[in-house]
Amino acid sequence: MKDSLLLPVIFLLIFLVVFLLIAGLVTLKSWGECFSEGSNTLVEAISYNLSVRLLQILPVSILISLVALFIRILVKPGSRFLSFLLPLGTAFAVLIFGYYFLNETSSSPHAEKRAVKTERFLLPGKFTDLGGYTVFAEALQNGKAANLILMEDGKSATENEQKKFNFYSRIEIDADEQGITLYPLNEKGVKINARPVYSSIFQEESQLSSFFRDIGLLNAELDRQYHNSSTGFLILSFSLLFFCVASSVLMRISRWPLLNFMIGLLILRGMFSLFRFLKTEIILELKKVLVDFPLIDALPAMIFLFLGLVLLLIDLVFVDYSFWQREIQGG
Amino acid sequence: MGKSKTIRLLQVLFLFYLVFFLFCLAYSVFTFNNDGGSDIIRKFAFGYIWRKALILFIDYLIPLQVSGVLISYSLFFKFKGKQGGASTYLPFHRLANPNLTLLLILTLMYTVLLSGFLPFFYRKQSEAEYVSRVALDILREAEIEKKEGNTERAIKLLEIYLSIDKGNEEIAWRRDSYSVEMAEGDRGKRAVEAAEPVLLSRAAASGQSASDLIEKAREYYTGEDYFSAHYYAALTLEIATERSLIIAARRIERDALKELSSLLPTGADKEALKLFLKKKEGFQAFTEKRFFDAYYIFKELEENYPRDPDVLMYLEKSRETLKEESFFIEEAKKAVALPGKGGILFKNQSAGGRVEIIAIERMVELSGDVFFKNVEAISFDSSGEINYHLHASYGKLVNNHLNMNAVDRFQAGKSSPPDYWQGGKSDLLPLHSIKLNPDWELLSKLSMDSQDLKGWNLMFLWQAREKIETFGLVTEKLDIILLLTLLKPFLFLILSLISISLGWSLRARYLARPPISTLLFIPLLPPVVFFLVMVISYGHKLLLGFLLLSLGFWPALITLCILESLLLMVSLLTLAAQKSE
Questions:
Q1: Closest among A236, A36, A250, A110 to B476, alpha carbons compared
Q2: Phi, psi at A49, each rounded to 5°
């Protein structure tokens, strides 16, 4: 009983550590991407949209913390009822209030659009690789470049083809979050979608990109629901957390603890993939058939809720709750 | 007993490695055609598939190793055996200790694979792709030439193809049939052989005999014009066949050099001294056949001393000599079909504040000669004025100059200069040659092609990072690759050690061997471990990237060493903290 009552506190501690760790790493990435803009803009760049960035890591931090908490529940199970309810309730409260608080902060009047400097994408005197182009600018100042060469990647200059190097002695450059636009004199502007000059240093492996993309999709859906329908947001948040807490049964499913542990991690990763699959594959297909069906957007939440219930049923009927004592501690 | 535990871990790991390698091999075979394999010529296909499998294997070795250790310690390290009818457990330290040495050896092997073999395999893959592409282009060109009726040209191209894809009977047969076809045609058209350019010596070309030249050399020597005397003596030596003339020319050449070395202008005229020393430097370059250097020295002198006869004469002679510094397109074409370095792009700072940007599609070294393919260069000054903008299909490195003055063997020595888009008459490019600041070894490192970077080993990365910045490349991109390559062996060892602890603490407590149904779940583990390893590596990458940009390479490297030492210590502590049954 005492062990179960302590679970919210332990959850909050774990969440704090996980949240701060992820926030720190995300801030390092943002810092690196703005590094070339100069130290004055660096602090500004980090603090800019901080609450939005924190909002994006909130759901994933909660889910990771829950999985970490399952290990504690395994070791010290306490009351079955409370060990299910308390983590679920705490995680739900943190998600809802966290969302509310961070959304309020991000929509404050101070959160204006920040000007992006050209130096984020170009370095004077250096070749910089910008999605499909390589650019060399001898000098850069206040959105203007002197002696700039634009090179199209993969194109090799041959006598019959166009030149690889396009030279502009003076050129104006506009920069925004997505990249730069070059405005040569008397010519049409060239828009280049680019990543910051040092972004490759902080670039994740392609296998992780899909995970981040799935997290992004879930965040976008939560954000959409939060702004469009509070009920929808509450149902989606609850169903996700309910499924996650119910899946703790898988940590006790076999007599091989390592396998159970790995299944727990797989569920954590699988949740995001399942959500993406439902959102991008199933709902899109269903929308073609069930046009104007009002509950179609709530389908992922319903499915998570249903799967959670199935897992809960399996837990109550088939799986021994004192797994750890029996298997590990020999109790 | 220790030995048997080591063997047991080795058995599990070996099984894991084997199964995974077979999986990689099967994957490489089945994805060969979808993954650009259709563009690989038959000769390279087998090696290409094997190397792809090996690359995949090395790339995923950390999660594989971690999975193997985890499974070994959670499933197979329990029983000492039956004693008195009951199973007894071994103490943990007796299970773990013998394998620590094994893990160290495996880490060393992994380091060798990672820093030596992996870049080598990547390089070979990229070479196979490139050479196949070139070979197929040649084949296509040969077909076009044949359709246009240029059978001889088509045969030549097929021969070039066969020099790449030796033993391709189909192409050899095609070449032979073209040859037979041509032999049956008009034999009078075989005049192409006569079109072989005959490079005459400079003296013979000017139509002077050896005795005329030695006379001139004597005249200049008597007139104390030692520069000219030496020059004519050297020309005599090039064409003279009579022994007496050769001896006389050698003597004049030697005496002229001696005089020049001892000669110093009298008086306190500093200007004259400066002129003399510079002339001597240019003369020395000329006699050592460094004609580009000689040209530049005399060109510079001409600007300040436009009436000096020695300067004018040697400038002209250097220019004339350089005209002959050409190479055959065919020779270059054949060379660039071989493996080399690609995607070279750099800033070549030249004199007078001018900047040259040079892009080279391919650089190949062949028997001491260095050839280039598809060179584009642009030069501009700080005011934005373009001095020249050119493209050359082929180039050759001569005295650290990029020479683009090619000659077509098939068209009676016809010169093929670069295509000047702008500034063709610029005097900045004497005879279509650009003086290169980086030497040829450094040139091969001036590439930021991500595919090419994978083929760089640790030493290559290390050498490149120190020098590339002055040529306009972003060093930090190399630095992070270097740091991450150094990180991987640490991760291999640390995660293996942690896996022992984790596997042991999460081991199956069956009384008997684990059921077969459990073993069916084993393939589930490596993907999860792979995902975890990715997350851990990415966390490291973010931290190292931050340290690199904020503090620089060395502090980042030192922090990496300290951090990994700490993690190693923690992993050893987790081992020590494990309990026996």
A1: A36
A2: 60, 25
Q: Which of A161-165, B67-71, B268-272, B530-534 has the lowest mean pLDDT?
A: B268-272
Nearest-10 crossing angle of helices B243-262, B210-222: 30
Is the Cβ–Cβ distance between A61 and A21 less than 8 Å? no
pLDDT above 70 as % of chain B: 83
Q: How far is CA A82 from CA A235, A237, B160, in A?
A: 21, 20, 79
Distance between CA A308 and CA B70 in Å, rounded?
Answer: 30
In this prediction, residue A52 carries a pLDDT of 86
- Dihedral angle sign, alpha carbons of residues A199, A200, A206, A207: negative
Structure tokens at A199: 């972004």
pLDDT at B206 over 60: no
Contact A205 B538 (CB under 8 A): yes
Neighbours of B224 (CB within 10 A): 10
In angstroms, the CA A34 to CA A197 distance is 9
Interface test with B, best of A28, A211, A324 (most B CBs within 10 A): A28
Beta strands in A127-208 (DSSP E): 127-130, 133-141, 144-152, 165-176, 179-184, 190-193
Output Rg (C-alpha) for chain B, integer angstroms.
34
* Long-range pairs, B281-288, Cβ under 8 A, ≥24: B282/B311, B282/B314, B283/B227, B283/B230, B283/B314, B286/B231, B286/B314, B286/B317, B286/B318, B287/B230, B287/B234, B287/B257
Q: Does A155 touch chain B (CB under 8 A)?
A: no
Other CB atoms within 10 A of residue B300 CB = 15
Q: Name the token pair of A29.
A: 């990435």
Strand partners, B88: B81
Residues on chain A touching B355 (C-beta within 8 angstroms): 138, 147
User: Are A149 and B378 an interchain contact pair (Cβ–Cβ within 8 Å)?
Assistant: yes
* Cα-based torsion angle of the residue sequence A28, A30, A32, A38 in order, rounded to the nearest 10 degrees: -120
- Give the Cα separation of A139 and A133 in Å (integer): 18
